[in-house]
Amino acid sequence: MIDEAVLEFSAGSLTLLNAILAVVMFSIAIDLLPKDFKALARAPKPLVVGLVSQFVVLPVLTFLLVLLVRPQASVALGLILVAACPGGNISNFITHRAGGNAALSVSMTAFATVGAILLTPLNIAFWGSLYGPSAEILRATEIDPVRIAVTVGLMLVLPLVLGVTLNARRPGVAARLRRPLQWLSMAIFVGFVAVALAANWAQFLAYAGGIAGLVVLHNALALSGGYGTAWLAGLTPFDRRAVTIETGIQNSGLGLVLIFGFFGGLGGMAVVAAFWGIWHAISGIALAAVMARTEAAR
User: Fold this and answer.
1) Which residues contact 114 (CB under 8 A, 6 or more apart)?
2) Nearest Cα to 285, choosing from 103, 87, 27, 95?
3) Cβ-based neighbours of 214, under 8 Å, separated by 6 or more
4) Which of the residues 37, 53, 157, 270 has an alpha carbon 20 to 30 A from that of 10?
5) What's residue 82's pLDDT?
6) What's residue 226's pLDDT?
7) What is the rounded CA–CA span in Å between residue 6 and residue 20?
C-alpha cells in the first residue's frame, strides 16, 4: 500500500537539498532590486491577483479534485501539500521564454516565498484536515507550524533578502554571478533529484504509474486556474502569462523537504512531489513554446 510505503532519504541528503534550494532562491533574488517592490506597490493589481491564484484558487481547485477522484490518503495529502507551496524556481525562466512579464513573475516568486512562511503550513493543515483519509495522517503526524515556518524562512526568505541586498549594493558582482549561478543551481537541483530517485527507483516505478495521470491532471488544473483567474481579473495578456505559469509551476523541491522533514518520506506524498518536479518543467516549457509564437499585448 502506498500509504504505508516510505522512501529513503538520509538526514545529510535533506541538509544538502535545503542548501541547494537556498542557492536556487539566491540566484533568483539577485535579479531583484528594492525599487521593483516599490513599483509593484504603486500598481499592485497583477501581483495581488497572482498571489490569490497561487494561495487561494489553486488549493481550492486541488481540494475539489481530491473530492472528485478520492485518491489514497498520502496521495491526496501530497497534492494538497504541493498546491500549498509557493511558485517554483524555474517559473521565472519559463515566463521569460513564454514572452510574459518576467518582472512580475520574479516579484510573485519573492512575495509568495515570504507569504509561504504563514500560508503554506496553514493551507496544508486546513485543506488536509477537510479530507477524511488525509486528516488521519495529519492527526498521526506531529506537525509544528513554527518549525515549518522556520524551515521555509531559512531556505527561501533568507537567501531572498541576501540576493536583493547584494544586487542593490554590489550590482557588478550580482551581474557576473546571475546567469552562471542560475544555470549551475538548476543543474545541481535536477541532478540531486535524479540521484534521490535512483536510490528509491523500484518504489518510484511501482507507484508512479498510478500517480502520473493524477499529477498531469493536477498540473493542467493549476495552469488553467492561473489563466482563468488572471482573465477574470482583466489582466493584460502580458501579465496573464506570468500568473498562469507562476500558478502552474510549484516549488516541489520545498515540498520534498517538508515531506521528508515532517512526514517521514511518506510514499504517496513523496512520489507526487517528485513527479510534479519532473512534469511541471515539461508542461511549462511546452506551454512557453506555444505562447512565444505570438507577442503578448501589454
Assistant:
1) 157, 160
2) 95
3) 69, 71, 75, 79, 272
4) 157
5) 94
6) 97
7) 23
The one-letter amino acid code at 66 reads V
CB 89 within 8 A of CB 24: yes
Cβ-based neighbours of 160, under 8 Å, separated by 6 or more = 25, 26, 28, 29, 32, 110, 113, 114
Neighbours of 283 (CB within 10 A): 20
In this prediction, the residues of the chain whose per-residue pLDDT falls under 70 are 1-14, 17, 36-37, 39-40, 89, 142-145, 186, 189-190, 192-209
Span 253-277, pLDDT tens digits: 788 878 877 887 777 888 888 888 8
Q: Which three cell numbers stand for residue 259?
A: 515531506
**Local structure of residue 66 (DSSP, 8 states):** H
Buried b (16+ CB within 10 A) or exposed e, 99-132: bbbbbbbbbbbbbbbbbbbebbbbbbbebbeebe
| Structure-block grid coordinates of residue 60 | 481550492
Report d(CA 258, CA 271) in Å as an integer. Answer: 13
DSSP 198-240: HHTHHHHHHHHHHHHHHHHHHHHHHHHHHHHHHHHTT--HHHH
